[in-house]
């Protein structure tokens, strides 16, 4: 069925268009830091719209980084790696490890036995078995307002914590290797270390490099603005930008009727066409999100760069009639779909579970 779609003509990346997208995103974002500093001192009413624009540009940075992870933004892989790393520094997230995890999502979209989404959803049966207190915590952690503290943790804290915890586990490994009867060089000791915080040595190197660059940029910005001023501006921008792209990702896979199958009998194409939604946004928001709302086409071929997604979607519109289309007004309702019903092969809500015949109280 994938062969019915006309995708290949849209997979051609353009270094010129990619470079222009980087320039029209990163340069204004950098300039707005100066505007924010000036406005807080001379025109405080200008500060809020300035920060709002910074949030949108940072969300666009993340979307362009996402394209680099698919090797689709630029024509050459090296350019995608370099600019993906730099965009990852701006977004405070190690791009290479993130993109590997995201590629896993693409390979298993709709297979909720292998990938439970960004909110780690549980089955209806597992939820029903939880004590009332844990049910309330489960709902609370997946409330839309948790996007903001959760987003801040996801970008600002989690990559630093992962490095610290991973390195903390290295020292017991080092001591054990030094006590071993067979002598090992430091290189062998290091390469033999395995951590649950990264899967390969390449991921560790990117995690380390990202942390050095990000923390170094924080120090430089604090020297310029003062630590208090920098964090009072940086923290809300990061939290809100993360909330935007986590929200977009969530509703593109958690929506009424979303396909959610077990591994046995899972269909990749059904996962694309019924487990992915297209988000219809105003043109300005399409620009800031780099057209990631054309999500079914993106899942059909992640090699299509963002600047060709809309044209590809238009060319294949007759084959995309079954894809769920969401508007901005539909987004709040998607956050109720936080349970996986393996029997129905669909996502469902706690309210629906509570009203099912013979169902226990959902709390």
Question: Stretches where pLDDT falls below 50 for ≥5 residues?
Answer: none
Number of strands: 5
Assembly category:
single chain
Radius of gyration: 22 Å
User: Major sheet, described briefly?
Assistant: 3 strands, mixed
Inertia-based shape: globular
Strand order of the largest sheet: 1-4-5
Tell me roughly what share of residues is in helical segments.
55-70%
Report the structural category: mainly alpha
Strand content: under 5%
How many individual helices?
16
Distance between the termini: 43 Å
Give an overview in words.
The chain is mainly α and 363 residues long. Helix content is 62%, strand content 5%. It is built from 16 helices and five strands. Strands 1-4-5 form a three-stranded mixed sheet. The longest helix is centred in the middle third of the chain and has 33 residues, at 147-179. The model has no long low-confidence stretch (mean pLDDT 93).
Brief overview:
The chain is mainly α. The chain has helices spanning 15-42, 44-69, 77-91, 95-107, 124-128, 132-141, 147-179, 186-191, 201-225, 227-251, 268-274, 283-288, 295-300, 306-315, 331-334, 350-355; strands at residues 122-123, 277-279, 324-326, 337-341, 346-349.
Can you tag this structure with a few keywords?
mainly alpha, 62% helix, 16 helices, three-stranded mixed β-sheet, 5% strand
